[in-house]
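[stage:ingest] chain + small molecule (manganese (II) ion)
[stage:ingest] validated
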Amino acid sequence: MTAPIDHQTRYAQRRARLASQLGEGGIAIVPTAPLRLRNRDSEYPFRFDSYFYYLTGFGEPNAWLVLTAEGRTTLFCQPKDPEREIWDGYRLGPQAAVAALGVDEAYSVDELDARLPPLLENRHAVWYPFATHAGLESRIDGWLHKVRARVRHGVLCPEALRDLCQPLDEMRLIKDDHELDLMRRAARASARAHARAMQRCAAMLRAGEDVREYHLEAELLHEFRRSGAQSPAYGSIVAAGANACVLHYRADTAAVRAGDLVLIDAGCELDGYASDITRTFPANGRFTGPQRDLYELVQAAQQAAIDATRPGARFADAHDAAVRVLAQGLLDLGVLNRNDVGHTDDVIEKRQYFRFYMHRTGHWLGLDVHDVGSYVEPTEAGQVCERRDPLSGEVIRERPSRILRPGMVLTIEPGLYIRPAEDVPERFWNMGLRIEDDAVVTDDGCELITRGVPVDPDAIEALMQG
Ligand code: GLY
Ligand code: MN
Ligand code: MN
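[stage:predict] done
[stage:export] tokens:
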């Protein structure tokens, strides 16, 4: 057992790891997210930039981190201001920031434009996250302009701009113990929220109440905040009946009726980390025959994807495993007609499942719900394979999928979305189903951290009874 490390050391270690990758004479600039106006003088709730937070643990707006390859860290933050603090709340301030965040020096953000050019003098490369902050490039250009104005005094101007996302994304892709601990807490809170929404849905219908999608969203939000989560990690989907076939549907006003399936895709963000769960359940707590048939098929597809999620396997293996089970099941249930489409291999090769399953089976999860990290194995990025998409005719250039390693976190989320169509049996029309869990890749497989809410259809029915 290693002793737990303190807050400051954790972030200092991350900064040191990043600094060691900047190359001789490198310097990195990382702003946090901007405050955004909603209208007039009302702001959207502030959410820090994930890269900035990963390196500092500092959640205030108007802050920047500057880091040199030698490991020297400078923070720019809001100055203390008793008057503003009455309105907006406590500010750490530069003086306290040095000790609180373990940086070498800290200044007011008002000094940023004056202090940045000297910091960039005589450096070789300037690193910053490309294409993530509107206006950052021109800001850096302005600082470089000031450096260049001093070349006659013997100052050297940086000769390279480098994308900081590249090393940072690789670091963020493998979660450390502290991150995994937060992600497990977020996952547990979200699982409780799903269980609560399921139970309340059935109870309200039993009591003869009018149930709307927003009532179930309210149950989710209640449980998120009750658990200490700061906000949802993304817009909650609560989709009753046919609405579940709209992939980016948001909780709206539709009535939830006994006999409908309800699809909820919702997860909280807790101390910066996202969770992402989908459950599909019968509104009144009892699956009909066709609902259960489709549900058990999606469940089997998810289990195949889970079994394919282990170190050494590829990211794409889970998707391929899920697609194979779905293709076979669609034939077995008669959703796809064997006489029209042939065998499972044909369905896969010609992507005939695609009209019912049109998204990927997962994504990285972390500070962001669709987290950073390359889906291509870096050591094999040069191996390009071309194939023609059977549906669109488009030529697709593929590179080898990422090899999974312990500490990666991803979602596993197969689904089926069946819109009315003449060639599809009517008993399946307007059903949309997805089952989504969050998985940590372990030494010998994966750990599902969201199973605090059941997936098994019998367990869902039991949960929703009384
Ligand atoms: N809720 C977003 C997703 O499942 O990817
Ligand atoms: Mn989701
Ligand atoms: Mn997801």
